[in-house]
From TrEMBL:
GO terms for biological process: protoporphyrinogen IX biosynthetic process. It catalyses: 2 5-aminolevulinate = porphobilinogen + 2 H2O + H(+). Catalyzes an early step in the biosynthesis of tetrapyrroles. Binds two molecules of 5-aminolevulinate per subunit, each at a distinct site, and catalyzes their condensation to form porphobilinogen. The keyword Signal applies. The lineage of its organism: Eukaryota, Sar, Alveolata, Apicomplexa, Aconoidasida. Residues 1-20 form the signal peptide. It comes from the Eukaryota. It comes from Plasmodium reichenowi. This is Delta-aminolevulinic acid dehydratase.
Length: 451
């Protein structure tokens, strides 16, 4: 009898050892329960996955919230572990500006890493939201409109059919809502924020919502920051304080990506830290890392009614970058460290060298997409050039192809462009075939154009 018990004991020990080494959750491991006598009727082992013997299973079966909520309420308190922080809800989190998994949480975000072909899935389409009853209104940019909620939903639906899933939204604010301190920028009940919420509710994860973070649409002076009329300067720190409030407001409204375009010092780090503290750790930051003080923005400012007219600081050179030097390339390393998930160069056509230098500057172990903004002035240049061409030699889409290829050669992954929908329609017409949409693939329309 003793010999048979010894064999059984050895057998059980071997089974436990094999299960532990394999680490296979599908195999059942056993724990010994030595009986007081060989005549005991109770089983000589019990299974780990028995809820009666597993306190964690009891905790998780109480339906008291998410796994994370239960962990913070029931489990984390008994651990004396260093270097974790507590957020606004008193939940633990890792206080770090860099999270590689942020951009991996959605297949459309993950596709931004690929820059081998021209793809509509790597376009970000800028759209303007107005507060009027009319669905869409013309702007001075040919083919570009401002939309109310109904109009913008129709536009997004048409774009999704072209495999365009990234949309950057800008508000067209009524003049009476503009103030010195730009309070409307963080008003959760504003038309812009409510529209963002409705858009995200309707399309969910089928689109990525990018929301502009800057004060120029809300500012009576038209500047990206709060302007002190007595000092005749833009106040950096209180502007950043306001931008943090704006970012939190947009995150609450449903934005997937906040896009600080203001060029103030330290805004990336402070936005990142406050998003994390308020439990928006999955929200990405697209940083206007190299935004140059350019003459190519005028049509855009006219759409937003944010032209600088009323003050003595007539331009934005005190905070936007100087195109005479490479000094501001230092922002690349700084913004990556501060927590930017995507970095951007704006404008595009005259700054391909900047894109190339950034691509070479980024360390091999840092995976971060580079966006380029094909701005309103560049859009208008191409449109006006095409008007002077004979209809028989109208190469507009071929010109756009050539432009986009130059971005990719320079090192960009993402193209922010007003041509997004037009070019998507062109690609569909060019290949003239039905496209089977595969939810598990990012390769729809991923066709290399050789024209």
């Amino acid at each position: 009898m003793l010999k048979s018990d010894g064999v059984l004991l050895l057998y059980i020990l071997i089974i436990n050892l094999i299960c532990c080494l394999n680490g296979n959750s599908k195999k059942r491991a056993y724990i010994l329960n030595t009986p007081k006598s060989s005549n005991c009727k109770r089983s000589s082992f019990r299974r780990w996955n028995n809820p009666v013997n597993n306190n964690n299973s009891q905790i998780l079966s109480n339906n008291e919230g998410s796994i994370e909520d239960v962990y913070n309420k029931k489990i984390s308190g008994g651990s004396n572990i260093k270097n974790f922080s507590k957020d606004i809800n008193n939940n633990i989190y890792i206080e770090t500006n860099r999270r590689e998994r942020r951009i991996k949480r959605n297949k459309y975000l993950l596709s931004l890493y690929n820059n081998t072909n021209i793809k509509t899935s790597n376009f970000i389409y800028p759209l303007f939201i107005h507060e009027e009853d009319v669905e869409k209104k013309h702007t001075q940019l040919e083919g570009i409109y401002t939309y109310n909620l109904d109009g913008i939903i129709k536009e997004i639906e048409e774009c999704i059919k072209l495999n365009i899933h990234h949309f950057m939204f800008f508000p067209v604010i009524r003049e009476e809502s503009k103030t010195v301190y730009c309070e409307e920028s963080y008003n959760e009940n504003s038309y812009f924020c409510k529209t963002i919420s409705r858009i995200k509710e309707k399309f969910s994860d089928d689109i990525i919502v990018y929301a502009d973070v800057a004060l120029d649409p809300y500012n009576i002076y038209g500047h990206d920051g709060i302007y002190d009329d007595k000092k005749k300067e833009i106040l950096n720190d209180i502007t950043v304080h306001t931008l943090v409030k704006q970012s939190l407001c947009l995150a609450k409204s449903g934005a997937d990506v906040v896009c600080p375009s203001d060029s103030m010092d330290k805004r990336i780090e402070l936005i990142r830290k406050n998003l994390d503290f308020h439990n928006f750790r999955d929200i990405l930051i697209l940083s206007y890392t190299c935004k140059y003080s350019s003459s190519m923005y005028k049509p855009f400012r006219s759409i937003l009614n944010s032209n600088i007219l009323k003050n003595f600081v007539k331009n934005k050179q005190s905070y936007q970058h100087d195109f005479n030097s490479y000094m501001d390339l230092n922002n690349v390393d700084k913004h990556i460290i501060e927590g930017a998930d995507i970095i951007m160069v704006k404008p595009s056509m005259f700054y391909l060298d900047i894109i190339h230098k950034i691509k070479n500057r980024i360390k091999d172990d840092v995976q971060i997409p580079i966006a380029v903004y094909n701005v309103s002035g560049e859009y208008m240049m191409i449109k006006n050039y095409v008007k002077y061409l004979n209809e028989d030699i109208n190469y507009e889409n071929e010109i756009i192809t050539e432009l986009f290829k130059s971005y990719l050669r320079a090192g960009a992954n993402i193209i922010i462009t007003y041509f997004a929908k037009q070019y998507g329609l062109y690609m569909k017409k060019l290949y003239d075939k039905d496209i089977i949409i595969d939810d598990n693939s990012n390769n729809n329309f991923n066709i290399e154009l050789t024209l």
